[in-house]
Design goal:
41% helix
Length: 180
């Protein structure tokens, strides 16, 4: 099994998505153009939280890359974001279009707490983390002491996903047909 421990703020929304809020607020893009790039958590939209500081949102291009990566590589997703404290697991799974199987014990907080949450997750499911392939996507490096951690600096991109494949020991040729 391959596991991805996923933070959301700073990973699936970032400076790139914030630019779209600014453009919308300044009238530089239409709401339709905004909606093609930004997906707002339904409860936030319902209550009119439409500014960058108060709405939980994701940047659609990054989300789509992540969905493809997860589906193509049969990865199980575990939440480590503060979103998993605020919202039900089913709500987040539906919103993201990703089957999030569980959340760690320490969502939010520092990297050291999240790192401990990863340990507790594997203990809970009866697996030794040293015998399992896993990767952590987070925007904050604080407290992580594992080589399985990848910092998402600006956004999810192909380079980050290729690094994740190496950590997960995913053979990039496994689904390819070689014709000679």
């Amino acid at each position: 099994d391959n596991y991805l421990f996923l933070d959301i703020d700073g990973v699936l929304n970032s400076k790139e998505s914030f630019k779209y809020y600014s453009k919308l607020n300044k009238g530089l893009i239409s709401r339709k153009e905004f909606d093609e790039k930004i997906k707002i958590m339904p409860i936030d939209e319902k209550y009119g939280k439409m500014d960058v500081l108060s709405s939980d949102h994701v940047f659609i291009p990054d989300l789509n890359l992540l969905i493809d990566f997860i589906n193509e590589n049969n990865i199980k997703v575990v939440g480590i974001s503060s979103w998993f404290i605020q919202y039900e697991l089913k709500e987040i799974s539906k919103f993201l279009g990703i089957d999030v199987i569980d959340r760690s014990e320490y969502c939010g907080g520092s990297g050291s707490q999240r790192s401990e949450g990863v340990d507790l997750f594997f203990k809970k499911i009866g697996k030794n983390k040293n015998e399992v392939n896993y990767v952590i996507f987070d925007d904050s490096p604080d407290g992580y002491t594992t080589e399985n951690f990848l910092i998402v600096k600006k956004k999810i991109d192909y380079e980050l996903l290729e690094k994740a494949k190496v950590i997960l020991k995913i053979n990039k040729w496994k689904n390819k047909v070689l014709t000679i």
